[in-house]
Amino acid sequence: MDYQTIAYSTVGPVAVITLNRPEVRNAQNELLKEELDAALHRADAEEAIRVIILKGAGSNFSAGHDMKQFPKDPTAFGAADPRKWFEGDTEKFRQFVYKVLRLFLNVHYTKKPTIAQVHGHVIAGGWVLASMCDLIIASDDTTIADPVVRMGSAGVEAIVEPWDVGPRRAKELLWTGDSISADEAWRLGMVNRVVPAAKLDEETMRLAQKIALSPPGTVQATKRSINHALDLMGWRASHEFHTELWVANNLSDEHKRLHAERESMGLREFIRRRDQPFQKR
Question: pTM of the full predicted structure?
């Protein structure tokens, strides 16, 4: 199968799926999410594959959503101005947001074990994507942040921070948008291992091959059991509740005002002005 935004390869029993938009720091547009979903289903269906690695091409894992190509067809939402597609048909907007949520959740519920191999910037939706994987290996140059609250949006569609770092630390990270280093992420339990950048590929593949030695049916049953325990603790319900709040927040006057500012000055300048006050504190 030909892909436009990802690459798919195999190394013995390991499938490697690479986010392949390095020119935009692997920002996730709608096509990338759809191709990633197809690649995950492909790896799940291939009997010889036992472990899946998810990585990013270039110098970053992922900068999150591609704000310039999301969604693919803004005019389909009925807004008078395509740049304000989220102000169109509210139910269409909700359906689109839940589509994005389902694509994230599909990573979590993939039958086979997944390892996120992260490096460089892992921002907002980039962290959500990595967090949906079973294990995370980070290079020592990794920086993680979710500054979306600064944009008048309640995080991204799936709020993973409370599950990754606990409620108090999650509130601090989301309300400030502060970034954390790979070592801090390891201390908080957000990643399994931190390795030198030069050895990231090698160490991630080593772990994947080691997991592949275990009986695959038993590994998959264990994953299903642990995921079920998370669901009993409210993991999936928490994402669905947050997504409803996210939809409402994005239709608020506050978000619309900030969105209008972003449109008037351009994304790059808006982010510069958004982040500047926080850097002084």
Answer: 0.94
